[in-house]
Amino acid sequence: MKKSHPLRRIVLAGAATVSGIVLLLTLKPSSDPAAASAEGTPQGQQSVAPQGSGGVQAAGGGDQTLTGDVVKTEYGNVQVRITVSGGKITSAAAVQAPTGGRSTEVSTNAVPKLNQAATAAGSADIDAVSGATYTSGGYKKSLQSALDKAGSSSATGGGSGGTTGGGSADASGSTGGSTGGSTGGGAAQAKTLTGTVVETDYGPVQVRITVAGGKITKAEAVQSPSGGRSSQISGDAVPKLNQAAVAAGSADIDAVSGATYTSGGYKKSLQSALDQAGG
Q1: Confidence band for 22, pLDDT divided at 50, 70 and 90
Q2: Percent of the chain residues topping a pLDDT of 70
Q3: pTM of the full structure
Q4: What are the C-alpha distances in Å from 47 to residues 39, 43, 51, 78?
Q5: Predicted pLDDT at 50
Q6: Cys-Cys link to 265, which of 98, 198, 234, 245 (CB 3.0-4.6 A)?
Q7: Alpha-carbon distance 174 to 167, whole Å?
Q8: How many other CB atoms sit within 10 Å of the CB of residue 102?
Q9: In 3-state terms, the chain is what percent helix, strand and coil (to 5)?
Q10: Torsion over CA of 87, 79, 171 and 244, rounded to 10 degrees?
């Protein structure tokens, strides 16, 4: 019988070992770290995107309209509604005010001044209107309750600029404008203009605006119909008309449903104020 050569056996054994290693490498499952990382990336983006969108929504929240409690006085109920935007009171209106006889005249004179003072001060710390002590007291209490609903700290914090401009009930827009001009370069060009008084079937309407950089930055009704149903209509319509005037930048605004006469008077007075600004 022929003997196999030792060298031949070594060569065969080596070949078998190499073949086994190759076979093992072929059967081993692939695990590519780069591929795994690439698959994980989209998941990371998906978890971040909702957080980003949520933050934008929180920062871009709209206006808040808040109605205070009804406060009973010796001459009738007082209730205030405010609009808060960006931590500031942008408008204030009396939804209810004392009416009947002398009370109607007192409310017609006092309420616009109280509205203006609330917007300027940004808080319920406003002066009482002379000759309207009870109405002023009820107004301040209802205003404070509305601020409490909004978080009075945020509303008062935003209104400090208005207080320096003139926090008294009779503060004029020109005083506030001059103070603003001394504190900031951009505010120096702001002009406060009061439109003509427009008589309607339900009472006079008069609008005051602030114009800066060729834009209406603020609008408010210095006078609006009051007494009975008119007070409620004005309380609902005036804040909407104020917002529409600022948004449109002109007197070309829609009338508020149910307040045709007030809306018409508002637009005429607004246009007369714009005419003074060269609008």
Answers
A1: low
A2: 67
A3: 0.39
A4: 14, 6, 7, 50
A5: 31
A6: 198
A7: 13
A8: 10
A9: 55, 20, 25
A10: 60
